[in-house]
Every structure is written in C-alpha cells, then in structure tokens.
Amino acid sequence: xxxxxxxSLRGVEYAYPGARSRALCGLDLEISEGEWVALVGANGxxxxxxxxxxxxxxxxxxxxxxxMGRNTKDEARVPDIRRAVSLVFQNPEDQIVAxxxxxxxxxxxxxxxxxxxxxxxxxxRALEMTALSSCRLKGSFSxxxxxxxxxxxxxxLAMTPAALILDESTSMLDPEGRQSFLSCLGRLKRSGMxxxxxxxxxxxxxxxDRVVVIDSGRAVWDGTPRDFFGGxxxxxxxxxxxxxxxxxxxxxxxxLPPGTLPDVGSMLDALCLS
Length: 274
What we know:
Layout: E1 5-14, E2 24-32, E3 36-40, H1 47-54, E4 62-67, E5 70-71, H2 78-84, E6 85-88, H3 101-111, H4 116-129, H5 145-157, E7 163-167, H6 175-190, E8 194-198, H7 202-205, E9 210-215, E10 218-223, H8 225-229, H9 242-252, H10 264-273
Parallel strand pairs: 3-8, 3-9, 6-7, 7-8
Antiparallel strand pairs: 1-2, 1-4, 4-5, 9-10
C-alpha cells in the first residue's frame, strides 16, 4: 500500500510579476506522510517559492500543487490547506505576535474560534513538544534566539498541522540554539510529523529521510542522505560537513559496515559494534 501523499507537485511553474525568468520551472515533487525531506540548493534556486506554493501563499502559474489531495488552485480549499500546513520562516521575531509566550502560542487556535479547553490543551501540548513549558509565562521577546525559534514552531504546532515547512529556520541561530531546534524536529519526526526543511546547512540534511536538490526552479536530484553524501553532493559544489569528511575516510579504510549513515551517532554505533 502506497503511503499517503501530503504534497504532490506536478509540472509546477511560477513567475513573479515583472520578473524576467521563472522561479519554478516544471517542478515535480512528492512528499509522503511522516517523511523528513531536506530541500537544498543555491540562493535563488526557488526553494522559498516552493515553500509558499506548498502552503498556498502562492498559486502556480502552470501545473498543480496538491496538499493532501486538495488542489491549491481551488480557493474554497485554501483555508483547509493553510491549517494543514504550517510554515515557519527564518526570523522568529517576524512570527511572534503576543508579548507572553503562552499567549503567543494560543493566538492561532483563538483565531479559529476554538473552545477554551481545546486551546489550553493545544498550548500545553505545543509547549511540551518544543521544550518551552517552563517559559510559558515569560516575555516572548526576552527569550534567546533558539527559544524564539522554538516559540515560532510551537505556534505552528498549536494549529495541529499535518505537515511543517521550515524555510531556513535555523539560519539565525547559534550552534546551541540550532542543536536545540533540531532535537525538537527529531522528536516531531518520531511522533509522525511530516517535515519539509529548506536548509543550506549540509549537516542538517544528514538527519533527514530524503535530500532533494532544487536548481534553477527544478528538482534535479532526489535520494537518501547516504547516497547524497556518498558523492552526489559534489555536483552542485555543496560544502562538505566535517562529519561527512570523517565518514568518507572511515569508509575508504573499510571501517564502516554497509548501511551506516553519514552522521556521528551512526558512525559511533558502527565503530563500537565492529
């Protein structure tokens, strides 16, 4: 039985008004329920446009984007699509709307007109999932950068989406904040959340289920992190993460068994068992 398709893009094209070229050029892509997909590519390759297409913030000028079977061109289905797909941008302060943490998380559910007990349950669950329960009564703008980004994520989760789209959501974080945010994504993945993560950090792509390369508005490569970091990444001049350099050296020396993933945890497990 085929897994449920959350996103299905077929020949999607998009041109911004007045632009000389198209941001997306016949892009085909499918993302299944529960997948964590890393979308990588150079600046201007079309990644952010793709994110907005998947959230129905933009409508394809040609082709179709289906979200859980709903065509984003069907205006009557757009509210359902935006509730099903939460989009988190790179600057968390652009997404914070209330001065107190728990009030900010409650903002979306309140606008849906949900009853108070349901709002409270959603806020509690979202704060717990993002490890912000102890900060619920703090000022939103007094949080650290990593906490603010997790607050933006908590607000998205309070809408109980079927999928998350993250558009360079770790780019403004320090290493500690980035690791905290990625740990949160790992917990969400294990809970069954579908995640489409736009990133330029190759060490983040290692943690995904799939890597999709976007180039000149098209999906030009799609495969596992192991295949990507096994050599495919060099075609587009992506910077090699230190962990992948170690992975390559260990494989060349025959120290890693087949199937080992190019992340530090998998390599340590393989070495300890060898």
